[in-house]
Specification:
The protein is built from 5 helices and 7 strands; from the N terminus they run βαβββαβαβααβ. The N and C termini lie far apart (31 Å). A hairpin with a 2-residue loop joins β2 and β3. It has a 7-stranded mixed β-sheet, with helices on both faces. The protein has one domain: Gcn5-related N-acetyltransferase (GNAT) (Aminopeptidase, 3-Layer(aba) Sandwich). With 144 residues, it is an alpha+beta fold. InterPro entries: Acyl_CoA_acyltransferase (IPR016181), GNAT_dom (IPR000182). It holds the Pfam family Acetyltransf_7. This is Arsenic resistance N-acetyltransferase ArsN2. It comes from Lysobacter gummosus.
Length: 144
């Protein structure tokens, strides 16, 4: 398995994300979300995405195939996303989740009130309309 490589936003990727219960309505051809996948051959084992450039980045679309949950792949994908965001100059990584808040808290993400979202994060479709107001909003400072 290659750990992680860029992946196109294509029907196979969208089906994987949708099958994991994640929003895909804004992941069209003109999307600014960058997706990365862990694969074995042509089989997607996991996906993670990043949205926005600059100091504040939104972690998007973390999904791991059912048979590999608990294997550490999700942790590896989040680690990859953190490094990629930091290398692009981000100082903070944000996310919204309805199901995995405890997973992210174990990875040192902390809860924030949605009113604390930077304007760029608050303006994303995921924040503004795709994720319900009941979603946990979490943050992790990147770097020292």
């Amino acid at each position: 398995m290659r750990l992680v490589s860029p992946v196109l936003i294509e029907p196979e990727t969208l089906a994987f994300l949708a099958g994991s219960g994640l929003p895909v309505a804004d992941l069209g051809a003109n999307s600014t979300v960058r997706l990365f996948a862990a694969r074995r051959g042509n089989v997607i084992d996991g996906v993670v995405g990043l949205e926005l450039d600059g100091p504040h980045v939104l972690l998007r679309s973390l999904a791991v195939s059912a048979e590999l949950r608990g294997s550490g792949l999700g942790v590896a994908l989040v680690g990859f996303a953190e490094r990629a965001a930091a290398e692009s100059g981000a100082v903070g990584l944000y996310l919204l989740t309805t199901t995995a808040a405890d997973f992210f808290r174990r990875l040192d993400f902390v809860d924030l009130d949605r009113t604390q979202a930077p304007p760029a994060i608050a303006a994303t479709q995921e924040f503004a309309s795709l994720c319900p107001a009941s979603s946990a909003f979490l943050y992790k400072r990147l770097g020292p």
